[in-house]
Inverse folding.
């Protein structure tokens, strides 16, 4: 069996993907806790297949300002990993790393920006490592790229990347929670359809 | 009248005499406003990709610059606009991330802008103002009562264009 659209995934495939996301997010949460020396918990990841406008609303609306770090996955498994931090979470990172809190997103200087990029990179790598080990698929990660801007503009990047193939987008979305849920950040995996088939085959989902 | 009409991604909306068309947070996508100042018919299309592939089964023409702009012109003509009177204002086409080596599509924002310009040139519609490129998202508002465009973006002054 092979899917040509995200919507064709059955319940079993989605469960499997949620499980993968859960292991990846768990690993990343541990890495984040260690990096920030703080207690970070995670939510059970959600696998969502949505239209372009829906996915942006799901993540907080088009004009929400977020800090985003994007990494391309290449090799046997390709796609995009995005780590989105909202303002409060960014401040936790600065506080824990003794960089001092900021008042506005505009106040982020070079040192703070590279701190976010570095923390995000650690989190994305540990997620990808866990997925890679679990499925024995090799995943190469690109150099991280960072932007602080409107969520809608940021999400246009993966949408456009898959725009010729699909009208929907699939996110495996894991949340990190600090201080009992007041402050969250999202780690999102967006595999392309070819890689999704490869992964699900490898995990035996399509071998019935 | 302060009617606001939201234009989604890969979507098109038009209105006559009154109302403001708005599309949120254009990243690498391009927002194209077309306007007939005499009939006061205005339309906004939010395109994602430069060209529709040949033999594509994709039903949504508004996703692509070439088919999206042409379909918009047809709709406007039905509602009383004259093609020879149309003017265009465009915004967007940013490069949100400075990705070393580039993504699989390269600088798609730039390609979107070029395809929009080409299509408008082929249709004989002048671009009277544009706010394109850069590395930030833009929310685009277009007022169909007077043809005025307005852009908001993060950490920058509002632009009237």
């Amino acid at each position: 069996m092979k899917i040509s659209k995200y919507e064709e995934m059955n319940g079993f495939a989605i469960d499997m993907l949620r499980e993968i996301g859960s292991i990846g997010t768990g690993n990343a949460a541990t890495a984040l806790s260690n990096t920030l020396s703080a207690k970070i918990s995670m939510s059970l990841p959600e696998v969502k297949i949505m239209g372009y406008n829906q996915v942006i609303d799901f993540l907080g609306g088009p004009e929400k300002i977020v800090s985003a770090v994007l990494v391309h996955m290449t090799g046997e498994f390709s796609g995009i990993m995005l780590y989105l931090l909202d303002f409060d979470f960014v401040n936790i990172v600065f506080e824990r790393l003794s960089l001092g809190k900021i008042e506005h997103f505009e106040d982020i200087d070079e040192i703070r920006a590279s701190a976010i990029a570095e923390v995000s990179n650690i989190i994305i790598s540990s997620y990808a490592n866990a997925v890679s080990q679990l499925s024995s698929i090799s995943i190469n990660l690109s150099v991280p790229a960072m932007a602080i801007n409107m969520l809608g503009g940021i999400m246009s990047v993966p949408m456009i990347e898959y725009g010729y193939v699909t009208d929907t987008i699939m996110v495996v979305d894991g949340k990190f929670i600090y201080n009992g849920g007041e402050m969250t950040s999202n780690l999102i995996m967006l595999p392309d359809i070819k890689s999704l088939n490869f992964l699900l085959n490898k995990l035996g989902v399509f071998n019935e | 009248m302060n009617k606001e009409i939201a234009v989604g991604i890969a979507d098109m909306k038009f209105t006559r005499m009154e109302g403001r068309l708005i599309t949120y947070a254009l990243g690498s996508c391009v927002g194209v406003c077309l306007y007939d100042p005499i009939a006061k018919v205005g339309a906004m299309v939010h395109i994602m990709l430069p060209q529709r592939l040949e033999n594509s089964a994709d039903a949504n023409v508004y996703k692509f610059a070439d088919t999206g702009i042409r379909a918009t012109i047809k709709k406007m003509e039905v509602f009383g606009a004259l093609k020879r009177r149309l003017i265009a204002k465009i915004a967007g086409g940013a490069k949100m991330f400075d990705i070393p080596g580039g993504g699989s599509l390269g600088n798609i924002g730039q390609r979107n802008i070029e395809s929009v310009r080409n299509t408008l040139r082929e249709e004989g519609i002048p671009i009277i103002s544009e706010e394109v490129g850069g590395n930030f998202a833009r929310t685009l508002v277009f007022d169909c009562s007077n043809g005025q465009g307005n852009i908001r973006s993060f950490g920058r002054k509002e632009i009237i264009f």
In short: Chain A touches chain B at residues 52-53, 56, 62-63, 65, 68, 70, 72, 105-106, 142-143, 145-157, 159-161, 163-164, 167 (CB under 8 Å). The helical segments of chain A are 11-36, 52-58, 87-96, 110-135, 151-161, 193-202. Chain A has one domain: 4-201.
